[in-house]
Amino acid sequence: MSILEVKGLYKNFGKSEVLKNIDLSLEKGETLAIIGPSGSGKSTLLRCINCLERAEKGTIILDGNTIAEEVAGVTQYLKDEELTQARLHLGMVFQNFNLFPHLNVLQNLTLAPMSVDKKPKEQAESEALDLLGKVGLRDRADAYPCELSGGQGQRVAIARALAMDPDILCFDEPTSALDPELTGEVLQVIKELAAEHMTMLIVTPEMGFAKEVANSVVFMDEGRVLERGTPGELLVNPKEERIKAFLNKLLSV
Ligand code: ADP
Ligand code: MG
Prior knowledge:
Layout: E1 4-13, E2 16-26, E3 31-35, H1 42-49, E4 57-62, E5 65-71, E6 74-77, H2 80-87, E7 90-93, H3 105-115, H4 121-134, H5 150-162, E8 168-172, H6 180-195, E9 199-203, H7 207-213, E10 216-221, E11 224-229, H8 231-234, H9 241-252
Parallel strand pairs: 3-9, 3-10, 7-8, 8-9
Antiparallel strand pairs: 1-2, 1-4, 4-5, 5-6, 10-11
Helix pairs in contact: 3-4, 3-5, 4-5, 5-6
The protein binds adenosine-5'-diphosphate and magnesium ion.
């Protein structure tokens, strides 16, 4: 069974239909890249999967647990408490890191494990230091977010998401706020996670990166999934003219 199943998802903002009948599934250990033009609904889809936005219609099943279910044409969500528990299966890394500015790096990593998971401080800190080692920042445990470069900040954000041991890690354009010379260090961390078979959902404008790390690529356009395929199929020889045009335009800049 898929670790994530999204069926018939619709999301409106006022009168504008932003997601239109999205079906998406993700297997354990898979890295799925979501690409497509700006405004096509990629961020909204991730936010709906994370329940940061609520869909009007559709079903979301996470790890066998139905968190949102369409009943008689309307989506009903789990109760708040159950939803909070279910959402712990998901980690989210945002474009702008969203680190807590008043906490140092170590405290950013230990806050949720201590308050939500009720881990003892010593255990939370020792696990946090291991995770910082994994993203190459063990020596910055005492630094505050404002003292970090963008690349370091994003690596801390990834370590913080990993500290809750999520089943799926979601990224929304994790390198888009970074200077070009800093993107490599963040992409490298994500590549290493892919090599360890972390299950990931990555919205990215970096086609080369998508080609290298993703097992599967989805192209979104105007709130719909236009095509899904392996990177070799979809990024090299897409069936849809719309995708060919999109890729050609990227190559010509
Ligand atoms: P993408 O991430 O693919 O660029 P988004 O999911 O951010 O696209 O946005 C899809 C569409 O939804 C856009 O037209 C955007 O203006 C609109 N939109 C996104 N968030 C909101 C919001 N909170 N309120 C109103 N409209 C929104
Ligand atoms: Mg977006």
